[in-house]
Every structure is written in structure tokens, then in C-alpha cells.
Specification:
The protein is an alpha/beta fold. It has 17 helices and 13 strands. It has helices spanning 2-19, 26-45, 75-87, 108-120, 131-148, 162-177, 198-205, 226-238, 261-270, 289-294, 308-311, 327-330, 342-346, 366-377, 379-400, 428-442, 469-487, and strands at residues 53-54, 90-91, 155-159, 187-191, 212-215, 242-249, 274-279, 303-306, 319-323, 406-408, 416-421, 448-452, 455-461. A hairpin with a 7-residue loop joins strand 10 (406-408) and strand 11. Bound molecules: pyridoxal-5'-phosphate.
């Protein structure tokens, strides 16, 4: 027995020696931090000199030439491998020239919040474990809710992104009505061809794959037509179907159009339907005056998706789901578990936990990255940045008009402009595809494209906090010169 004990202790001590490297001491930490911090500085200060998009032959595959080993590697080598294999290919969303898709940015203040979230590793899933962390997240959510115009009784959760927020909305809408599985095939969802694809994905994930999905026609500005929506609801009722959910987009991903929220809500209300607004791209614009005006009616959403990693410039991994009636988000996610029994005695419960408002239990402490950024920068900086993006889009739209043979989409509701060049001869789609390739290859700006009524359209989406007038002017100059180059 005692020999066993000695042996065990000896073994434990050996293992302790081997595992101690998981816990660097103060000097090692300082050195690591200094190196990583310098690396980050070099990255940030060189942002303007790096191409926004870069094709690279190996596309990071050389990572695999250096598999994980039992031995520790020097940080210098590790950072070099990160640079060569990750930073040297593909899109650079941190760049001020990123105007493709929906730009993300990556606030530095949030990065500091992430660092502290990881180092302190507070448990933000459950109130009893960290009342402060949960309150901080709740404070962030209540701030969003207030800006939207939601009542205090609303609730919400910081998700990993807009897709998961939309999934949560679909689940909340499903459970609010208490439908039985045998009714699922009678439920009808209304959306448009411009609704983000993750909504249909969410419907399937939520077990509602059998529901009927109606694609409501859009008008010339790509907004859902309320008259068509009414007609379709009427028709579906006459067929014995149950109009259940309407998904309005507050800023479509494709062209940035805001569906007529006020009218759609009226129709939804009369027909006792769930009104979800997908504001992953656009809802953050409520923070600025012009955006708030264009988003009128957003406050009537039963559930609302926002995406701070788009419209609040946060690093990737932060979405928001809000429910106007707080219980609607709690209903699908309430739980009891024996191993959680301490929770009730550890802390007074006047604050709902994220674990009761989402499918997650243990999770990233996302609130800190938003809280830090709002605190350090102050809210007015965000309001100004968003107003600036809207004006930049309008400016870009107007500048395009001065280029011969450019055709634009609608005047921007928010910060996306679509356009194409119509060449004197030849296939316009081919021309614009080549034009976009040339723009991207030049390296200073990045745009993406979409197909609208079989026309290849180039998309300019302005949403990085680093994109300012100079960059937009540069984009115009590059568009002009690339058109000339192809035409000659
Ligand atoms: C980006 C986007 C989504 C998806 O959000 P993720 O954060 O990428 O998961 C959903 N809806 C709209 C309108 C979007 O723009």
C-alpha cells in the first residue's frame, strides 16, 4: 500500500514536471505577449500595403508539413507559419479596402476584451457562476434592445453569428405557437428570393423541413411586395394551410434593401403570424439617425437578428438574437439538470442566464468584447461611423453616375450599391466578370458580385470602420481605369 502510494506520488511529480510548460511564468508571459503584440502591430500598420485579396498557390496547405509534435516550438516559427499559411492567402477582412459580401472589421478594443475574456475565463453561461459576466452580457443586450425600441421585458442572447440567431428565432417562433409535428406540413413561411439562405437552413435544422415555403415577389427595389404577401396568405388559408412565419429582411445581403417593415407587420398581426426581422446586415444602423429612419417598424419584430460582427465592427463570432417578449426566447431553452442544482442556492436569481436563452451551456464570454469596445470608444463613435458608411454609399452611388455606361441598382437604403458596366458590344455579363477580376487583382479594394435578373452585378458594400472617403474615391478611380483598360 505505502509502496503504491510512493510510486503514485513519484509518477505524479514526473507528470507535473512535464505539464508545467502549459503554465508559463511571469517572464515567459511577458516575452510571449511582447512578441504577439509586436506581430499584431506589424499587421495593423501594414494593412494599407497588403492586397485585400490574394490568390496563393498553396493556400495554407504547407501548415500540414509541420504537424503537431511532442516538442515545443519557438514562437517566432509559429508566427511565421501563421503569416505564411493564413495571412498570405484569401481575403483580408481587416483591410479598409474590403467592400465585398458584408464586410467585417475587427475592433482592436474588442480584441483586448477577447484577451481578457480568455485569460480570466469567467463562465458567462450561468448567472450563479459569474453574476457579473452575465449581467455584463445582459447590459449589452438591453442596450441593443433599447436602441431598437424594444420594451424592457424583451430578452436576448449573444450568439456566435447571424445564422445561429436566425435559428434561435425560428425555434422561438415554432414553440410560441405550440404546433404539433403532424401540423408542420401545413405551416407556411413567407420570404423573398433575397432572404438570406440561412433562414431555409434554420427551418430544416429546426425540424420543420416539411413546411411550405412561399417566395413572395419583390418590387423594383428588391423589397417584398405587401399586396402579394396578403394575397398569398389569403390563398394559403383557403387551402387549409396555416400562415405561420414571415421573415422580413432589414437590409438584404445582396442589395441592402429594407423590406417594408411597417406594412408587413400589419399584415402579420392581422393574420396572427410571427414577424421575424433578419437585421444581420442592417439592424445596427438604428444607431444612427438616417438608419433609424429607414428602419422604421423594426421595433415591431417578434424576434430580431443583429450581427455585431458586421454592423458594430466586432471581430467574427458575435451575433444577437432579440425577442420582444422575453419569454419567447426562454420557452425553447429552459431546462432542469441534477448537476446544476447548486445554481439555485449559489446566487439570487434576478437575472436570466444565457444557458436559459440559448442552446449553449459553456460558451465564449462574448459580452466583454462588445462592452469593452462601447466603453473605450464611446457610443457616439459608432453612431458616427454608421452614418458615415451610409453617406459613403450614397456618395459612391452618385459618383458612379458620372461614369459612362454604368448602370446602378437602387439608391442605397443603407450601405450597399450594386452596379454594372454595359459595354457597347459584347456580353455584359462576361465584361463585368472580367472587370471584377481586374478590380480585385489590382489589390487595393475588394468587391463581390451577385446575379440580379440574370445580370452579373458588382456589389460595393461599405461597412468596415476603417473604410473612409479616400478608399471609396480610390475604388471609383480603379473602376474607371479598369473599364478603360478592358475597352481598349
Ligand atoms: C450575414 C447575414 C446572415 C448570416 O449571418 P452570419 O453571422 O454570417 O452567420 C444572415 N442574414 C443576413 C441578412 C446576413 O447579411
Amino acid at each position: 500500500m505505502s509502496k503504491d502510494r510512493k510510486q503514485i506520488i513519484k509518477k505524479i511529480q514526473e507528470l507535473e514536471k512535464q505539464s508545467i510548460s502549459l503554465d508559463p511564468d511571469v517572464d515567459e508571459r511577458k516575452e510571449l505577449m511582447a512578441n504577439v503584440s509586436e506581430f499584431a502591430e506589424n499587421f495593423l500598420t501594414s494593412l494599407n500595403n497588403r492586397p485585400v485579396f490574394k490568390n496563393c498557390e498553396n493556400e495554407g496547405s504547407k501548415l500540414l508539413n509541420s504537424p503537431f509534435s511532442d516538442e515545443s516550438e519557438p514562437l517566432g516559427n509559429i508566427l511565421k507559419s501563421f503569416t505564411d499559411n493564413v495571412l498570405e492567402s484569401g481575403l483580408n477582412p481587416a483591410s479598409p479596402g474590403h467592400f465585398g459580401y458584408i464586410p467585417g472589421s475587427g475592433l482592436y478594443y474588442s480584441a483586448l476584451g477577447d484577451y481578457l475574456a480568455a485569460v480570466t475565463n469567467r463562465y458567462s453561461g450561468i448567472y450563479a457562476a459569474s453574476p457579473g459576466a452575465v449581467r455584463m452580457e445582459a447590459m449589452v443586450i438591453q442596450w441593443f434592445a433599447k436602441e431598437i425600441g424594444y420594451p424592457e421585458s424583451s430578452s436576448g442572447d449573444l450568439t456566435s453569428g447571424g445564422s445561429i440567431a436566425n435559428l434561435s428565432a425560428v425555434v422561438a417562433a415554432r414553440d410560441a405557437f405550440g404546433f404539433k409535428a403532424k401540423e408542420y406540413s401545413k405551416l407556411v413561411v413567407y420570404l423573398t428570393a433575397h432572404t438570406h439562405h440561412c433562414i431555409e437552413k434554420s427551418i430544416r435544422i429546426a425540424g420543420l423541413g416539411e413546411t411550405v415555403i412561399r417566395v413572395v415577389p419583390v418590387d423594383a427595389n428588391f423589397k417584398m411586395q405587401p399586396e402579394s404577401f396578403v394575397q398569398m396568405v389569403k390563398h394559403d388559408k383557403s387551402l387549409g394551410l396555416i400562415p405561420w412565419l414571415i421573415v422580413a429582411s432589414a437590409g438584404t445581403t445582396d442589395v441592402g434593401s429594407i423590406d417594408p417593415l411597417v406594412d408587413l407587420f400589419e399584415i402579420a398581426k392581422i393574420n396572427k403570424m410571427w414577424f421575424h426581422v433578419d437585421g444581420a446586415y442592417g439592424a445596427s444602423f438604428v444607431l444612427c439617425k438616417s438608419g433609424k429612419k429607414n428602419l422604421k417598424g423594426i421595433e415591431d419584430a417578434d424576434t430580431l437578428t443583429m450581427d455585431p460582427h458586421k454592423g458594430l465592427f466586432a471581430p467574427f463570432g458575435t451575433g444577437v438574437i432579440l425577442a420582444k417578449n422575453g419569454m419567447d426566447l426562454h420557452r425553447p431553452y429552459q431546462y432542469e439538470a441534477n448537476y446544476m442544482q447548486d445554481e439555485k442556492t449559489l446566487a439570487k436569481k434576478d437575472q436570466m442566464s444565457p444557458a436559459e436563452l440559448s442552446p449553449e451551456l459553456t460558451r465564449h464570454f462574448r459580452g466583454l468584447r462588445i462592452w469593452m469596445a462601447l466603453k473605450i470608444a464611446g457610443i457616439s463613435a459608432f453612431r458616427s461611423a454608421l452614418e458615415e458608411k451610409m453617406l459613403l454609399a450614397q456618395y459612391f452611388y452618385n459618383e458612379l453616375q458620372s461614369i459612362d455606361r454604368i448602370e446602378t441598382g437602387p439608391f442605397p437604403d443603407l450601405s450597399i450599391v450594386i452596379f454594372r458596366y454595359v459595354p457597347q458590344e459584347g456580353n455584359p455579363n462576361t465584361f463585368n466578370q472580367v472587370l471584377l477580376e481586374k478590380i480585385i487583382k489590382e489589390g487595393s479594394v475588394f468587391m463581390s458580385s451577385t446575379m440580379i435578373n440574370n445580370n452579373f452585378m458588382i456589389r460595393m458594400a461599405i461597412l468596415s470602420f476603417r473604410s473612409h472617403l479616400e478608399k471609396v474615391d480610390q475604388a471609383i478611380t480603379i473602376i474607371r481605369s479598369m473599364i478603360q483598360r478592358i475597352e481598349n
